[in-house]
Design a protein that fits this description.
- Helix content is 45%, strand content 13%.
- The protein is an alpha/beta fold and 467 residues long.
- The chain has 4 domains: 115 residues, Rossmann fold (3-Layer(aba) Sandwich); 188 residues, 3-Layer(aba) Sandwich (Rossmann fold); 57 residues, Orthogonal Bundle (Helicase, Ruva Protein, domain 3); 62 residues, Arc Repressor Mutant, subunit A (Orthogonal Bundle).
- The protein starts with a strand and ends with a helix.
Amino acid sequence: MSHVLIVDDDSDTREALAAIIAQDGLTTALAGDLREARIQLVRQTPDVVFTDLKLPDGSGVDLFEDLDPTSGVEVIVITGHATVESAVSALKMGATDYLVKPINMQRVKAILSRLPRPGDLKAEIGTLRGELRRMGRFGLMLGSSPAMQEVYDQISRVAPTAASVMLVGESGTGKEVAAQTVHQLSLRRKHAFLAVNCGAISPNLIESEMFGHERGSFTGADRQHKGYFERANGGTLFLDEITEMPVELQVKLLRVLETGMFMRVGTTKEIETDVRLIAATNRDPEQAVVEGKLRLDLYHRLNVFPISLPPLRERGKDVELLAQAFLEELNERYGTRKHFPPAVKEMLLSYPWPGNVRELKNYVQRAHIMSSADSDATAVVPLQISIAKPSAGTAITIPFGTSLAEADRQLILATLEQCGGVKTRAAEILGISLKTLYNRLVEYGNDTKLAEGEASDESQTVGRANV
């Protein structure tokens, strides 16, 4: 039977909590200050601790020092309205959740219903780390590079808590997959995970989508509609592109975070919700605050635990791992047995992937679609070059009167230079075979250039092997 320790200097609060907890078949121990709490900890290690932050002889967070970090004890802190910031700080230190006085007993029941058996969640996370070492997977995420190992460590720490998470990363880095992984490793995993793209909803409809509306509340509202906060009750709500949310709605979102209450459009009746928020943006959130795109107070509430997702170009051989996983999915879906030829593998590692994982997945699908039906190899299709930020030196000037042969020579050599000497990539861009490119270089009598190109290819291969 699970055991709960309740630490609060108010006897009415202690007795009310004990009565609710006893209904769930849990045993309880009561303490009015830190001294009594430490005595109870010696007598019996609890599975859950409810502790007030303000105690006569110190702060409830001081109990963290008396708890074995490997014991799996869940800590829920209790605070007054004026000290919610202290509760957020406690979450960063490892608290699982927090309650605001006057305590809502329905919220207590919701917290208890989410609590796993001691150590269950930590054991599952440990198992996932074992899978990572074997397969390069962590939950729904894939990759074994040092940059991703750091992300996995952060998710391991924050997932079992109630802390809000802010995911920051370029478009296509997998922020929604990271959010789903946090949810699946959290105490809310048996409840809903809902994703909302704040930039994809009309500003006129976003409040209704978030909080719902009553029938007849506006033209076209022919029925009652439950919003995301109501449907995600008990679970996780992922707000993608949070900086695109209208500022006036951010005020209402902040109120939900502070009180756990909201109102459907067209009514004054408050509805209670218990939702964990994970926000994401591909912008610098602090710059968004400066530009007035994101409220400072909301930013602090959402940014309890920030996680930065690395771009694909910083993940080394994760590119190969991801590409192979995407190809295996396509093979399973279409009953094929395709593999990447060497030329494609070389391109995968030499390309900077401005569109990150999303661009890589699209490329693998194109290569699979364009491949011949009677071949087990994917097609060698050209990579799409980003035109948003052209690099310097990507154009050559050919004066009027230049012979076609000379223009051809300049174009080939310039393309080879832009590709860093990687001839396979240069041949692909030029639309010629690798053999033709070699022959042209020999024709130009440029054996030195050819040798330099070969050396460049070799050095890049060695460099990639050491990633």
